[in-house]
Amino acid sequence: MTSTPMSRPASMNLLELQGVTVSFDGFLALNDLNLQLAPGELRAVIGPNGAGKTTFLDVITGKVKPTRGDVVFRGRSIVGRSEHHISRLGIGRKFQTPRVYQNLSPRRNLELAVRGPHGPAALLFGSLSSEQRDRVQHLLSVVGLERQAQQPAGGLSHGQKQWLEIAMLVAQDPELLLVDEPVAGLTDEETARTADLLKQLAGDHTVLVIEHDMEFIRDLQAPVTVLHEGHVLCEGSMDQVQNDPRVIEVYLGSETQEDAA
Amino acid sequence: MADLLSSRNLRRWLPWALIVLAALVLPVVLPPFRLNLLGRFLSLGIVALGVDLIWGYTGMLSLGQGIFFALGGYALAMYLQLNELKPGELPEFFSLYGVKSLPAFWQPFGSPLFTLVAIWVIPASVAGVLGYLVFRNRIKGVYFSILTQAALLVFFNFFNGQQKLINGTNGLKTSTARIFGELIGSDVMQRNLFWLTVVITVAAYLLCRWLTAGRFGDALIAIRDDEPRLRFTGYNPTAYKTVVFAVAGALAGISGALYTVQSGIVSPQYMAVPFSIEMVIWVAVGGRGTLIGALLGAVLINYAKSLVSEALPETWLFIQGGLFLLVVLALPDGLVGWWRQGGPGRLIAMVGWPPRTATYPALDLDPQVAAEQDQLERRGGGQG
């Protein structure tokens, strides 16, 4: 029932979920989920509320352990590893609601996120390299937060926090970026800019985006995976997916999908 | 000279100059009794710095700092009990319980060098091990507070019950012990101890500032703000929390040792539940998340406590409770936070003297500044 449009030998995939099942006291949040991501790919994941999208990210990032099945990153299983370990392997995550450190300035938020050693001794005795400093400065200008760089991030607007968190994700420089609802609460212009940014990142990075906003997904021009009740309903281009009778059935009233966001 | 007195330099050097001045003048001006009190309260400032590190910065409310405070006090008191004993002699209290030979764990405390290290290494190790086990299991919030308080009670009851090992409830007296041939309780010795306390308090403050100023401090604040988020960025919060809890333990130990020699005794009362809660109140009133607030809170509240207790012995607990309520309800960032956020100015404005805003006419007339101001205001209005 799962159609895989791009079948490849397993070793070529950056990330593979193999029959992942997550059971919360008998409730199956994920049910035999299979998914492959090729290096450099940009992939969109959609699905109605309760389809298991967030649990799916929790499994990859180590927050939730799968009841059955395996998660393979760069050919090695990452099931059972702690969150910080998985992050260091090169998997970064942006959360649904923007989560920045409210009492730190955007610059300091980025300085914590920037790629490099993350142990207590490194932070106490080491200092940022000029390369890391440049990277932080560059990202501040990319997301337009140079003027607010020194004020506590708690005072930023919702959109600015979203962008700061995306910048933190980029500062981490992970191989795989998991982006959960990056344009929730953004203006149309900001949404378009976010789509451009993610498209730019794909290629060098592998990007997986979860989003409700169908216009945004269309903008991304990326293959779409539809989740429903914890497993993959179908995969394909946005047009294919939108005309799939199964998807129409899941999303009641498919003509008004834009409003579903 | 003009450069030396510029406001920036002044702001940097003035506090230190005042500290040096106070350390030189106060021993002359204050009667020995008051000076001794001030020294004791300053040493309590050191344990408050530790509480601020773990609670104010990292967000872990420990109600068990008394453990580490008392361990430091006992370490030094044991050395003082053994010091200047003739060979074969035992500290006096042992004879009351029929103990004929020195318990094994007392032996190393005959060495001054060992004791100087033990004062902070033993509390730090206990804190480190306890902390690691707790943090590794991701116990936090109110469960962490309950756990630290339970640990405190365990230590309290254990020390109370061990007459044959450490004189139980009576504790160990230090005022009658001698060091360098001088009575610890003498005025000269107490004045020297006051100076020592000033120096160590400044050193502890600088250590905490070094810890909190850079990216390490940012990581602590990030743990307080959103610990899971930090994990997903590749940090292991367990390591940070263990380190900072151990540092707070070491500070508590040093604080306890200084407090012990200045009050003349260490007893299990230092591990009583209310005392450890008071440490938290000092930091809350002074201003958590600011190092100077922790120091100020400890010194001011304890000084107020001793003054009030002398005049109206029954009222202090009510005043302390009222202070805590005031801080929780009206000054969430404590006295220092209130000061920094322009609290005094607002208070004066409330009485009817609104402060004049200082500005430069040239700045008001600059078209670019006006345009930026306009833009900022519009943006501010656009946010919901």
Please tag this protein with its features.
heterodimer; A: 261 residues; alpha/beta; 11 helices; globular; B: ABC transporter involved in vitamin B12 uptake, BtuC; two-stranded antiparallel sheet; 17 helices; 4 strands
Detailed description of the structure:
Chain A is an alpha/beta fold. Chain A has a domain at 10-96 and 175-260: P-loop containing nucleotide triphosphate hydrolases (Rossmann fold), CATH 3.40.50.300. Chain A is built from eleven helices and ten strands. Chain A has helices at residues 53-61, 83-89, 106-113, 120-125, 130-142, 158-172, 188-201, 214-220, 238-243, 245-250, 257-260, and strands at 15-24, 27-37, 42-46, 68-73, 76-77, 91-94, 176-180, 206-210, 224-228, 231-236. In chain A, the strands form two sheets. In chain A, strands 6-7-8-3-9-10 form a six-stranded mixed beta sheet, with helices on both faces. The longest helix of chain A has 15 residues, at 158-172. Chain A starts with 14 loop residues before the first strand and ends with a helix. Chain B is mainly α and 384 residues long. Chain B has one domain: ABC transporter involved in vitamin B12 uptake, BtuC (Orthogonal Bundle). Chain B has 17 helices and four strands. Chain B has a two-stranded antiparallel ribbon with strand order 1-4. Chain B has a two-stranded antiparallel sheet with strand order 2-3. In chain B, a hairpin with a 2-residue loop joins strand 2 and strand 3 (182-183). In chain B, helix 2 packs parallel to helix 8 (187-213) and helix 8 crosses helix 9 (215-232). Chain B is globular and about 90 Å long. The model of chain B has no long low-confidence stretch (mean pLDDT 89). At the A-B interface, helix 2, helix 3 and helix 4 of A face helix 9 and helix 10 of B.
